[in-house]
Automatic annotation (TrEMBL):
Protein name as it appears in the record: Acylphosphatase
Family indicated by similarity: Belongs to the acylphosphatase family.
Keyword Hydrolase: yes
This protein's UniProt keywords: Hydrolase
Catalyses which reaction(s): an acyl phosphate + H2O = a carboxylate + phosphate + H(+)
């Protein structure tokens, strides 16, 4: 198993459309740990840790997001392993 850690910044209409809650559900289903939160600029930031295929699948989910979201950009960078336990949306 190959472990992967990434940070994401998701832009567009991603606040107030259940993006964080759905992202957390998707992460838990895939066994990805980390977090997702709203940012002051209207974007959503996330930190994903786990098996590479599962992390990649969650990043791909972010490109569409929740049904009411309108994602315009997803920036992905290598993250620092926080050894997160579980996944939280704040």
């Amino acid at each position: 198993m190959s472990r992967k850690v990434v940070d994401v910044q998701v832009s567009g209409r991603v606040q107030g459309v259940f993006f964080r809650a759905r992202c957390a559900d998707e992460a838990r289903e895939r066994g990805v740990t980390g977090w997702v939160r709203n940012e002051a600029d209207g974007s959503v930031a996330g930190h994903f840790e786990g098996e590479a295929e599962a992390v990649d699948a969650l990043v791909e989910w972010c490109r569409d997001g929740s049904p009411r979201a309108d994602v315009t950009d997803v920036r992905v960078t290598d993250g620092t392993d926080e050894h997160a336990e579980g996944f939280r949306a704040s």
